Amino acid sequence: MAGNRKDIAALIVGFLNDTIKTKEVSEDYVDSLNVAIDCIAEAFEFDKETVGAIIKKSFDGRNLEQLLSGSTDGAEDLQKEAVTVNIPVEDAETKAKAEELKALGNKAMAAKDFELAITKYTEAIEALPTNAVYYANRAAAYSSLKRYEEAVKDAESAIEVNPSYSKGYSRLGFAMYALGKPEEALGAYKKVLDIEGEKATDAMKRDYETAKKKVEQSLDLEKSSPAQSQAENNSGGFPDMSSLLGGGLGGLLNNPQVMQAAQQMMQNPNAFKDLMSNPAVKQMADKFSSGGGAPNMSDLMNDPALRDMAKNMFGPK
């Protein structure tokens, strides 16, 4: 018996189709069964017209009733077929073993022994590969070691096993963000909020907002880069002074470059004396003190001494 979940879904659709054909349910429920068939086929991404071919290939043409016939014998046959194709049987003993391995992995994570955690989660997955939690936990361990590509693969496996498991998307979002892919991270975090709805925690919302801001910053940078590059070319490789002064005193105090220059001048008194002895700067100070408003920036920037001084203060280090 094949363990592919899509094949099992096709087996269920085949059963529902047979039920409709043999009229084993009232006509009142036929429409509901057809809706169920469409939903299953869409969710597991297969064409409902190919159900017969899938059952023939994966189950030797046997339908669900045939595979389950004879309670004890049928269970033994299913187990034998699962062993033949190396698919673990989800019995109580297997689940208990897998959970024990997961617990050991969790213990290793708490001790920050991430390599051991990966080993234990891997053993849990090998014992029971149909549990999305094990993949998500291993993704967290990989991320802790900054092995983000592997974390992405495990997060995607968790989502494949259980598309409604929000932590799978959360692990995917974290790894994508760490890889410098904020748009993919934003999509994953958005899925977390969609799944959790009103149950979404503050941490989940913060993750989404962080990725959103990063995407917005990237978009703003793309928009401003051409103009910014042109401005820097026009000003000899350092920022346009008018942009530094255009925001008034508040703009100056909030500008990191101006604050850095001020700090440098405080550490070097001679630099401050040189600045204040410059005729263009003295003119600017006189004009401000007399209430004449801001000086013409083009006149300031055309002063060679001031341009050299500004270049030393604000230019690339």
From TrEMBL:
GO terms for biological process: post-translational protein targeting to endoplasmic reticulum membrane. It comes from the Eukaryota. Residues 215-240 are annotated as: Disordered. Gene3D superfamilies: 1.10.260.100, Immunoglobulin FC, subunit C, Tetratricopeptide repeat domain. Signal peptide: none annotated. TPR repeats lie at residues 98-131, 132-165, 166-199. The keyword Repeat applies. InterPro entries: SGT, SGTA_dimer, TPR-like_helical_dom_sf, TPR_rpt. Residues 4-69 form the SGTA homodimerisation domain. Pfam families: SGTA_dimer, TPR_1. GO terms for molecular function: molecular adaptor activity. Keywords: Repeat, TPR repeat. Residues 225-236 have a biased composition (Polar residues). Belongs to the SGT family. This is LAFE_0E00518g1_1. The keyword Repeat applies. One of its GO terms (cellular component) is TRC complex.
